[in-house]
From TrEMBL:
Protein localization: Golgi apparatus membrane
Source organism of the structure: Oncorhynchus kisutch (Coho salmon)
Family: Belongs to the sulfotransferase 1 family. NDST subfamily.
Annotated Sulfotransferase domain residues: 48-158, 160-239
Protein name: [heparan sulfate]-glucosamine N-sulfotransferase
Active site (UniProt): 57 (for sulfotransferase activity)
Disulfide cysteine pairs (residue numbers): 202-212
Residues that, per the record, bind 3'-phosphoadenylyl sulfate: 155, 201, 217-221
Domain of life: Eukaryota
From-to range in the entire protein, with total length: 563 to 828 of 830
Amino acid sequence: LQTLPPMQLADKYFQIFPEERDPLWQNPCHDKRHKDIWSKEKTCDRLPRFLVIGPQKTGTTALHSFLSLHPAITSSFPSLVTFEEIQFFSGPNYNNGIDWYMDFFPFPSNVSTDFMFEKSANYFDTEVAPKRAAALLSRAKILAVLINPADRAYSWYQVVDGSQLRSNPALVMEGIQRFLGVTPIFNYTQALTYDESKGFWCQRVEGARPKCLGKSKGRKYSDMTPESRAFLTEHYREHNMELLRLLNRLGQPLPAWLREELQSSS
Ligand code: A3P
Protein backbone atom coordinates (compact mmCIF):
# COMPACT_ATOMS: atom_id res chain seq x y z
CA LEU A 1 0.00 0.00 0.00
CA GLN A 2 1.37 3.38 -1.02
CA THR A 3 0.40 6.72 0.36
CA LEU A 4 1.48 10.37 0.13
CA PRO A 5 2.99 12.43 2.99
CA PRO A 6 0.22 14.02 5.15
CA MET A 7 0.18 17.51 3.60
CA GLN A 8 0.14 16.22 0.04
CA LEU A 9 -2.44 13.63 0.96
CA ALA A 10 -4.62 16.39 2.42
CA ASP A 11 -4.24 18.48 -0.74
CA LYS A 12 -5.23 15.51 -2.85
CA TYR A 13 -8.20 14.73 -0.62
CA PHE A 14 -9.57 18.27 -0.79
CA GLN A 15 -9.08 18.34 -4.56
CA ILE A 16 -11.34 15.33 -4.77
CA PHE A 17 -13.80 16.54 -2.07
CA PRO A 18 -13.74 20.35 -2.26
CA GLU A 19 -17.06 20.61 -0.42
CA GLU A 20 -15.34 19.21 2.69
CA ARG A 21 -12.82 22.01 2.84
CA ASP A 22 -14.97 23.82 5.39
CA PRO A 23 -15.25 21.67 8.50
CA LEU A 24 -18.57 21.06 10.22
CA TRP A 25 -17.89 20.23 13.86
CA GLN A 26 -20.19 17.78 15.55
CA ASN A 27 -20.47 16.74 19.18
CA PRO A 28 -17.87 13.94 19.50
CA CYS A 29 -20.03 12.15 22.06
CA HIS A 30 -23.01 11.84 19.72
CA ASP A 31 -21.27 9.31 17.49
CA LYS A 32 -19.76 6.16 18.97
CA ARG A 33 -16.92 6.08 16.45
CA HIS A 34 -15.93 9.61 17.40
CA LYS A 35 -16.36 9.01 21.10
CA ASP A 36 -14.08 5.98 20.96
CA ILE A 37 -11.19 8.08 19.71
CA TRP A 38 -12.00 11.17 21.85
CA SER A 39 -9.36 11.63 24.56
CA LYS A 40 -10.28 10.26 28.00
CA GLU A 41 -9.25 13.58 29.54
CA LYS A 42 -11.80 15.47 27.49
CA THR A 43 -15.49 15.90 28.10
CA CYS A 44 -18.40 16.82 25.86
CA ASP A 45 -20.08 18.76 28.66
CA ARG A 46 -18.18 22.02 28.29
CA LEU A 47 -20.71 23.19 25.74
CA PRO A 48 -23.56 25.67 26.10
CA ARG A 49 -27.16 24.55 26.65
CA PHE A 50 -28.49 27.68 25.07
CA LEU A 51 -27.35 30.53 22.86
CA VAL A 52 -28.32 34.18 22.79
CA ILE A 53 -27.94 34.90 19.08
CA GLY A 54 -28.69 38.62 18.83
CA PRO A 55 -29.26 40.61 16.71
CA GLN A 56 -26.97 43.47 17.66
CA LYS A 57 -28.48 46.57 19.26
CA THR A 58 -31.53 44.83 20.68
CA GLY A 59 -30.50 44.68 24.35
CA THR A 60 -28.39 41.51 24.22
CA THR A 61 -25.82 42.91 26.68
CA ALA A 62 -28.58 43.62 29.20
CA LEU A 63 -30.04 40.13 28.68
CA HIS A 64 -26.58 38.59 29.09
CA SER A 65 -25.99 40.44 32.35
CA PHE A 66 -29.45 39.57 33.72
CA LEU A 67 -29.00 35.88 32.87
CA SER A 68 -25.59 35.87 34.59
CA LEU A 69 -27.27 36.92 37.87
CA HIS A 70 -29.10 33.60 37.99
CA PRO A 71 -27.41 31.11 40.36
CA ALA A 72 -27.92 28.14 38.01
CA ILE A 73 -26.88 29.93 34.81
CA THR A 74 -23.24 30.31 33.82
CA SER A 75 -21.94 32.50 31.03
CA SER A 76 -18.93 31.71 28.86
CA PHE A 77 -15.66 33.40 29.80
CA PRO A 78 -15.29 36.69 27.92
CA SER A 79 -13.16 36.77 24.80
CA LEU A 80 -10.51 39.47 24.96
CA VAL A 81 -10.70 39.99 21.22
CA THR A 82 -14.29 40.24 20.00
CA PHE A 83 -16.17 42.56 22.40
CA GLU A 84 -16.27 39.78 24.99
CA GLU A 85 -18.32 37.59 22.66
CA ILE A 86 -16.86 34.28 21.45
CA GLN A 87 -18.28 34.59 17.91
CA PHE A 88 -17.43 30.98 17.18
CA PHE A 89 -20.15 29.94 14.72
CA SER A 90 -20.05 33.18 12.80
CA GLY A 91 -16.50 33.68 11.56
CA PRO A 92 -12.88 32.58 11.35
CA ASN A 93 -12.84 31.43 15.01
CA TYR A 94 -14.76 28.38 13.83
CA ASN A 95 -11.56 27.08 12.25
CA ASN A 96 -9.94 26.99 15.70
CA GLY A 97 -12.01 23.88 16.43
CA ILE A 98 -14.11 22.63 19.34
CA ASP A 99 -11.30 22.48 21.91
CA TRP A 100 -10.82 26.20 21.42
CA TYR A 101 -14.57 26.74 21.85
CA MET A 102 -14.84 24.53 24.94
CA ASP A 103 -12.01 26.43 26.64
CA PHE A 104 -14.44 29.33 26.99
CA PHE A 105 -16.62 27.25 29.31
CA PRO A 106 -15.91 26.01 32.82
CA PHE A 107 -16.13 22.32 33.66
CA PRO A 108 -19.77 22.06 34.79
CA SER A 109 -20.10 21.23 38.48
CA ASN A 110 -23.39 19.42 38.09
CA VAL A 111 -24.23 18.67 34.51
CA SER A 112 -27.99 18.36 34.86
CA THR A 113 -28.61 21.63 36.67
CA ASP A 114 -25.90 23.88 35.30
CA PHE A 115 -27.06 26.00 32.36
CA MET A 116 -24.09 27.29 30.42
CA PHE A 117 -24.63 29.75 27.62
CA GLU A 118 -22.90 32.22 25.40
CA LYS A 119 -24.08 35.37 23.68
CA SER A 120 -22.75 36.37 20.29
CA ALA A 121 -25.01 38.96 18.71
CA ASN A 122 -23.83 38.34 15.16
CA TYR A 123 -25.00 34.70 15.02
CA PHE A 124 -28.41 36.07 14.06
CA ASP A 125 -27.32 37.48 10.72
CA THR A 126 -24.51 35.10 9.77
CA GLU A 127 -25.73 32.65 7.20
CA VAL A 128 -23.51 29.70 8.17
CA ALA A 129 -24.18 30.05 11.91
CA PRO A 130 -27.44 28.01 12.13
CA LYS A 131 -25.97 25.03 10.28
CA ARG A 132 -22.82 25.05 12.41
CA ALA A 133 -24.62 25.56 15.71
CA ALA A 134 -27.14 22.81 14.90
CA ALA A 135 -24.31 20.38 14.09
CA LEU A 136 -22.46 20.92 17.37
CA LEU A 137 -25.31 21.87 19.72
CA SER A 138 -28.23 19.92 18.35
CA ARG A 139 -30.21 20.19 21.60
CA ALA A 140 -29.38 23.79 22.53
CA LYS A 141 -32.20 26.28 22.94
CA ILE A 142 -31.99 29.55 21.09
CA LEU A 143 -32.88 33.02 22.36
CA ALA A 144 -33.30 35.83 19.84
CA VAL A 145 -34.29 39.31 20.96
CA LEU A 146 -36.76 40.91 18.59
CA ILE A 147 -37.36 44.63 18.60
CA ASN A 148 -38.86 46.95 16.08
CA PRO A 149 -36.27 47.10 13.27
CA ALA A 150 -37.02 50.80 12.83
CA ASP A 151 -35.86 51.41 16.42
CA ARG A 152 -32.92 49.11 15.92
CA ALA A 153 -31.86 50.99 12.80
CA TYR A 154 -32.19 54.25 14.68
CA SER A 155 -30.11 52.75 17.52
CA TRP A 156 -27.29 52.00 15.08
CA TYR A 157 -27.59 55.59 14.06
CA GLN A 158 -27.66 56.90 17.64
CA VAL A 159 -30.77 55.70 19.58
CA VAL A 160 -32.73 53.67 22.21
CA ASP A 161 -35.08 50.78 21.52
CA GLY A 162 -38.52 50.34 23.05
CA SER A 163 -38.83 46.64 23.72
CA GLN A 164 -40.24 44.88 26.73
CA LEU A 165 -36.79 43.70 27.81
CA ARG A 166 -36.01 47.30 28.34
CA SER A 167 -39.26 48.37 29.96
CA ASN A 168 -40.09 45.27 32.01
CA PRO A 169 -37.07 42.95 32.23
CA ALA A 170 -38.38 41.02 35.26
CA LEU A 171 -41.38 39.80 33.26
CA VAL A 172 -39.23 38.89 30.26
CA MET A 173 -36.72 37.06 32.45
CA GLU A 174 -39.53 35.01 34.00
CA GLY A 175 -40.68 33.88 30.57
CA ILE A 176 -37.11 33.03 29.56
CA GLN A 177 -36.57 30.90 32.66
CA ARG A 178 -39.71 28.91 31.87
CA PHE A 179 -38.61 28.48 28.26
CA LEU A 180 -35.19 27.21 29.36
CA GLY A 181 -36.63 25.01 32.11
CA VAL A 182 -34.06 26.36 34.55
CA THR A 183 -34.54 26.02 38.31
CA PRO A 184 -34.77 27.62 40.78
CA ILE A 185 -36.88 30.40 39.29
CA PHE A 186 -34.83 33.46 40.11
CA ASN A 187 -36.70 36.55 41.31
CA TYR A 188 -35.67 39.37 38.99
CA THR A 189 -38.20 41.74 40.52
CA GLN A 190 -35.97 41.65 43.59
CA ALA A 191 -32.64 41.50 41.76
CA LEU A 192 -33.24 44.46 39.45
CA THR A 193 -34.08 48.05 40.15
CA TYR A 194 -34.98 50.94 37.89
CA ASP A 195 -32.25 53.55 37.95
CA GLU A 196 -33.72 57.01 37.36
CA SER A 197 -30.51 58.66 36.27
CA LYS A 198 -29.57 55.85 33.85
CA GLY A 199 -33.17 55.52 32.69
CA PHE A 200 -32.80 51.73 32.55
CA TRP A 201 -33.16 48.66 34.74
CA CYS A 202 -29.95 47.80 36.57
CA GLN A 203 -28.69 45.25 39.07
CA ARG A 204 -29.77 46.06 42.65
CA VAL A 205 -26.84 46.16 45.05
CA GLU A 206 -27.51 46.07 48.80
CA GLY A 207 -26.45 49.32 50.46
CA ALA A 208 -24.88 50.77 47.30
CA ARG A 209 -25.77 52.35 43.98
CA PRO A 210 -27.28 50.00 41.38
CA LYS A 211 -24.86 48.35 38.95
CA CYS A 212 -25.80 49.48 35.44
CA LEU A 213 -24.36 48.64 32.04
CA GLY A 214 -21.60 50.85 30.66
CA LYS A 215 -22.03 54.20 28.90
CA SER A 216 -22.28 52.67 25.43
CA LYS A 217 -25.43 50.72 26.37
CA GLY A 218 -28.55 52.75 27.00
CA ARG A 219 -27.51 56.13 25.68
CA LYS A 220 -29.50 59.34 25.91
CA TYR A 221 -30.69 61.02 22.73
CA SER A 222 -33.68 62.81 21.29
CA ASP A 223 -36.68 60.86 19.97
CA MET A 224 -36.81 59.78 16.36
CA THR A 225 -38.56 62.34 14.16
CA PRO A 226 -42.02 61.28 12.85
CA GLU A 227 -40.65 61.50 9.28
CA SER A 228 -37.81 59.08 10.05
CA ARG A 229 -40.21 56.71 11.79
CA ALA A 230 -42.65 56.76 8.86
CA PHE A 231 -39.80 56.10 6.44
CA LEU A 232 -38.38 53.19 8.48
CA THR A 233 -41.83 51.71 9.12
CA GLU A 234 -42.40 51.60 5.38
CA HIS A 235 -38.89 50.35 4.74
CA TYR A 236 -39.30 47.36 7.09
CA ARG A 237 -42.97 46.58 6.37
CA GLU A 238 -42.38 43.57 4.09
CA HIS A 239 -39.69 42.19 6.46
CA ASN A 240 -42.04 42.59 9.41
CA MET A 241 -44.75 40.71 7.46
CA GLU A 242 -42.22 37.91 6.88
CA LEU A 243 -41.44 37.87 10.60
CA LEU A 244 -45.17 37.67 11.38
CA ARG A 245 -45.54 34.68 9.06
CA LEU A 246 -42.47 33.00 10.59
CA LEU A 247 -43.66 33.48 14.19
CA ASN A 248 -47.13 32.21 13.26
CA ARG A 249 -45.59 29.16 11.61
CA LEU A 250 -43.48 28.50 14.73
CA GLY A 251 -46.50 29.03 16.99
CA GLN A 252 -44.64 31.80 18.85
CA PRO A 253 -46.42 34.78 20.43
CA LEU A 254 -46.14 38.07 18.57
CA PRO A 255 -44.17 40.85 20.26
CA ALA A 256 -46.36 43.86 21.07
CA TRP A 257 -44.27 46.16 18.89
CA LEU A 258 -44.87 43.94 15.85
CA ARG A 259 -48.65 44.06 16.27
CA GLU A 260 -48.54 47.82 16.65
CA GLU A 261 -46.20 48.29 13.73
CA LEU A 262 -48.32 46.21 11.38
CA GLN A 263 -51.52 47.87 12.53
CA SER A 264 -50.08 51.34 12.04
CA SER A 265 -48.74 50.54 8.59
CA SER A 266 -51.76 48.65 7.23
P1 A3P B 1 -28.67 52.07 22.81
O1 A3P B 1 -27.19 51.82 22.93
O2 A3P B 1 -29.09 52.60 21.48
O3 A3P B 1 -29.18 52.88 23.95
P2 A3P B 1 -26.91 45.44 22.55
O4 A3P B 1 -26.37 45.16 23.91
O5 A3P B 1 -27.59 44.23 21.95
O6 A3P B 1 -25.92 46.08 21.65
O7 A3P B 1 -28.12 46.49 22.75
C1 A3P B 1 -27.91 47.80 23.27
C2 A3P B 1 -29.28 48.37 23.62
O8 A3P B 1 -29.82 47.68 24.75
C3 A3P B 1 -29.26 49.82 24.07
O9 A3P B 1 -29.39 50.63 22.91
C4 A3P B 1 -30.52 49.92 25.00
O10 A3P B 1 -31.60 50.56 24.36
C5 A3P B 1 -30.92 48.46 25.22
N1 A3P B 1 -31.16 48.10 26.62
C6 A3P B 1 -32.21 47.33 27.04
N2 A3P B 1 -32.18 47.19 28.37
C7 A3P B 1 -31.10 47.88 28.84
C8 A3P B 1 -30.55 48.11 30.16
N3 A3P B 1 -31.12 47.58 31.25
N4 A3P B 1 -29.43 48.89 30.26
C9 A3P B 1 -28.85 49.42 29.16
N5 A3P B 1 -29.32 49.20 27.89
C10 A3P B 1 -30.43 48.46 27.72
